[in-house]
């Protein structure tokens, strides 16, 4: 089974403690109209190189503008979304495992507080060449392709770590209320299948925040209302189930807390521009 944007996978196994590439994807400008909504990857770190155009990504705490030449780093477990609306964006994406950096948690390539977007500057031609070569070699699968790609990947990782992944600007909490908004958002990420009512926040002993303030500040920070965010979070997980399982649309709708498969399909098509069945047919090749 091939997954979204038809990534090229390794068939060779590696030591779990050794940094190694799992797959590499190439996304052309034509794919921008079918976004990959809110989702995360356990144990997998992602490197995304923007090779053309510009747009916005959502990662962990905020919407971040990106453009050609930017390198985006998703630590494992971080909620993220690539949604470029009408922007013509092309990119390469590498999924990797075995990241154990000194002073960081397992699965972290950059500190949690640092910016996820890095400028490649004058190194962009060299970096994009390594991405392109990895993709080409893995696609062709010539003799010793796995060893060749792994060595290219190790070169790429050294180049990025020593020249690009410089300490970023720390994200500071502006106030106690802002910290509460962020904590509620984390709760929503972990419990996205549960019912969530903003009106109940004021009487919640843990948070005790004004619902109107929360809704306003949440949208100001994350670009979506709380309800829109939860919908996108659920649809993102539904996309994963559609391309990785044989569950029916109704079963998937129920698993991400949509009681009606018809309503689920309506929301899915509104966000992704394809129905669930069309999405599965387009991005899953048996």
TrEMBL record:
InterPro entries: AraC-bd, Homeodomain-like_sf, HTH-like, HTH_AraC, RmlC-like_jellyroll, Tscrpt_reg_AraC-type_HTH. Keywords: DNA-binding, Transcription, Transcription regulation. Pfam families: AraC_binding, HTH_18. Residues 182-282 form the HTH araC/xylS-type domain. GO terms for molecular function: DNA-binding transcription factor activity; sequence-specific DNA binding. Gene3D superfamilies: Homeodomain-like, Jelly Rolls. PANTHER family: ARAC-FAMILY TRANSCRIPTIONAL REGULATOR, HTH-TYPE TRANSCRIPTIONAL REGULATOR EXSA. This is Ada family regulatory protein. The lineage of its organism: Bacteria, Bacillati, Bacillota, Bacilli, Lactobacillales.
